[in-house]
From TrEMBL, chain A:
InterPro entries: PurE_dom, PurE_prokaryotes. Transmembrane segments: none annotated. This is phosphoribosylaminoimidazole carboxylase. Its EC number is 4.1.1.21. One of its GO terms (biological process) is 'de novo' IMP biosynthetic process. It comes from Pachysolen tannophilus NRRL Y-2460. It is an enzyme of class 4 (lyase). Gene3D superfamilies: 3.40.50.1970. It comes from the Eukaryota.
UniProtKB/TrEMBL annotation, chain B:
Pathway: Purine metabolism; IMP biosynthesis via de novo pathway; 5-amino-1-(5-phospho-D-ribosyl)imidazole-4-carboxylate from 5-amino-1-(5-phospho-D-ribosyl)imidazole (carboxylase route): step 1/1. Its EC number is 4.1.1.21. One of its GO terms (biological process) is purine nucleobase metabolic process. Residues 109-296 form the ATP-grasp domain. Keywords: ATP-binding, Decarboxylase, Lyase, Nucleotide-binding, Purine biosynthesis. It catalyses: 5-amino-1-(5-phospho-D-ribosyl)imidazole-4-carboxylate + H(+) = 5-amino-1-(5-phospho-beta-D-ribosyl)imidazole + CO2. NCBIfam families: PRK06019.1-5, purK. In the C-terminal section; belongs to the AIR carboxylase family. Class I subfamily. It comes from Pachysolen tannophilus NRRL Y-2460. GO terms for molecular function: ATP binding; metal ion binding; phosphoribosylaminoimidazole carboxylase activity. It holds the Pfam family RS_preATP-grasp-like. This is Phosphoribosylaminoimidazole carboxylase.
């Protein structure tokens, strides 16, 4: 109902156990996966970036760091093998 | 601006503040009252009329020099005003017949009842012991014995607590027409200012909560500390009541809030009202300017009665003549001058115990802050509250004063899930707020949140959807927009019943 009353973008986070059939045509709500408020927040920041580049730069940095994080993990996994990796 | 000259019957503090508002719009005013009355003191541009607003001769003289007449007090000679209007075609607002109707508090109540407006139960009564005993049997004790006419600031009211009090009541209110009101067991007294245009459009100011002491208004909190549903209902009731009176002008509508949430109109005043003084600082357009605009047919755009910002809070304190030491009340004014966010209005009167000498308006972004400032002015604390620093945002995560993102959920049970998103926003240093807004349990709060979101500077809203998923969107949105309870009284229970049924479909 908030989306019906404001022109601002509304991101819905379905909390486990809720029904999602109540989204009528004409009142768009962006949705993320069930319980995934993290993604909702990231999406909100991306929306902020559309009108203020400050948030675009922040988001770029975050995405870069995310790539770095995965690469570091991959490197470790390849180096010590999956069995030892799981034990840590 | 408008070249009309407005004649004001009555030159007390309300007249004084009407003159101030008129001056800012280059509108001339001439005042009829005793020499040197408060309204005359601040307007030396035009020669005023000395005399009484109940004297037809004086009213006639005033009318001969004006294009338009208005009143700052309802106890004028309404019959003569009707005659004058018929003879000279002069515009008079509020209409003389409206003034006459409201003058008699019992007729006022009958009129509202005829239009299905909820009022305190009232009965006309003869000034005899027998008739009051009969009333006592049917209404029970206590009940209110009231003078039908010429009553103000509690004068003309008597609380009859038991049979034993009847003699004294009749003695106190002797020689005047009386009526009785059933005792309304109220939990709060609320008031709404309503402005009505010449063509009958009404707009209401926010709902205020008034605190009376010795039957005189002492404090006025705006917005009233009641939930949004009660606020909406109170405004609706006030607007509906004023729709029933013809003519233009500002009206003060006082009402009782009962424990079960029911609202009953107590009294209506066809003029600016003490409970609307906060509008001078808390709204862009004061009740006095609204009155001027309405009677001179100047523009009154939709929403011109709203608070200056969505976070405006205000407390008005009446400055009453001290009961022990003359002029001791000025100490409060001095303290108000020392307090940031407070302003002082004095009426130019000589002090008398309990007399309305002036008022103080406190305006801030939270009621707690207003209260702190009031505590200093009242002498409850010696610490002067500092001015708010709006540049320094709140340090607690999710409580930003100027948020860009709003995180809302229908219940705190969604918080563990939603907090994951909050952590991200915190990590990015995004100013955000977190709150509970329930489509079912707080429908008015939700609509207020959504409607004001852009004005408050939000850029995006994250809404948690537990249970029926009605907060972010809803299968009933399309119908909800048109049927949402802005324009007719529908109880909270009804709304949730409606939604529950919708969900089942």
């Amino acid at each position: 109902m908030v989306a019906a009353m404001t022109p601002l973008p509304v991101i819905g986070v379905p909390v486990k156990g809720s029904t999602l059939d109540g989204m009528p045509r004409g009142v768009p709500v962006a949705t993320v996966a069930i319980n995934n408020a993290t993604n909702a927040a990231l999406l909100a920041i991306k929306i902020l970036g559309a009108h203020d580049s400050k948030w675009l730069i922040e988001m770029e940095t975050y995405m870069n760091n995310m790539e770095e994080e995965v690469l570091t993990k991959a490197q470790r996994l390849e180096a010590i093998g999956y069995e030892d990796y799981l034990k840590q | 601006m408008d070249s009309k000259v407005i004649g004001i019957l009555g030159g007390g503090q309300l007249g004084r503040m009407i003159v101030e508002a008129a001056n800012r719009l280059n509108i001339k005013t001439i005042v009829l009252d005793a020499p040197n009355s408060p309204a005359k003191q601040i307007n030396a541009l035009d020669p005023h009329v000395n005399g009484s607003f109940t004297d037809p001769k004086c009213i006639k003289e005033l009318a001969s020099r004006c294009d338009l007449l208005t009143v700052e007090i309802e106890h004028v000679d309404a019959d003569y005003l009707m005659e004058l209007q018929a003879q000279t075609n002069i515009e008079i607002y509020p209409l003389p017949e409206t003034i006459k109707l409201i003058q008699d508090k019992y007729l006022q109540k009958l009129h509202l009842l005829e239009h299905d407006i909820q009022v305190v139960e009232s009965k006309s009564v003869e000034s005899t012991k027998e008739s009051l005993l009969t009333i006592g049997k049917s209404f029970g004790y206590p009940f209110m014995l009231k003078s039908r006419t010429l009553a103000y600031d509690g004068r003309g009211n008597y609380v009859v607590k038991s049979e034993a009090g009847i003699d004294d009541a009749l003695k106190t209110l002797s020689n005047r027409p009386l009526y009785v009101e059933k005792w309304a067991p109220f939990v709060k007294e609320l008031a709404v200012m309503v402005v009505r245009s010449v063509d009958g459009n009404v707009q209401s100011y926010p709902v205020v909560e008034t605190i009376h002491e010795n039957n005189i208004c002492h404090l006025c909190y705006c917005p009233a500390r009641v939930n949004y549903t009660v606020q909406e209902k109170a405004q609706l009731l006030a607007r509906n009541a004023i729709k029933t009176f013809n003519g233009a002008g500002i009206f003060g509508v006082e009402m009782f809030l009962l424990a079960n949430g029911e609202l009953l109109i107590n009294e209506i005043a066809p003029r600016p009202h003490n409970s609307g003084h906060y509008t001078i600082d808390a709204c862009n357009i004061s009740q006095f300017e609204a009155h001027i605009r309405s009677i001179t047919n100047l523009p009154m755009p939709k929403g011109f009665t709203s608070l200056t910002t969505t976070s405006t809070n205000s407390i008005m304190l009446n400055v009453l003549g001290d009961y022990i030491t003359p002029d001791a009340e000025l100490e409060k004014c001095r303290k108000a001058l020392e307090t940031p966010h407070a302003s002082v209005y004095l009426y130019g009167k000589t002090t008398r115990p309990g007399r309305k000498m002036g008022h103080i308006n406190i305006v801030s972004s939270s009621m707690e802050d207003c209260q702190r400032r009031l505590d200093y002015i009242m002498g409850h604390t010696n610490e002067i509250p500092a001015s708010l620093d709006f540049n320094k945002d709140n340090q607690i995560a999710g409580t930003s004063i100027k948020p860009l993102v709003g995180v809302i959920m229908g219940s705190d049970s969604d918080l563990p899930v939603m907090s994951k998103g909050c952590e991200i926003l915190k990590k990015f240093n995004v100013p955000f707020e977190v709150t509970i807004v329930s489509a079912h349990r707080t429908p008015h709060r939700m609509s207020k949140y959504a409607i004001e979101s852009t004005r408050r500077g939000l850029k995006c809203i994250i809404a948690g959807a537990g249970g029926a998923a009605h907060l972010p969107s809803s299968s009933s949105t399309t119908t909800t927009i048109t049927t949402f309870p802005f324009s007719f009284p529908i109880s909270l229970d009804l709304i949730s019943f409606y939604f529950k049924n919708k969900t089942k479909q």
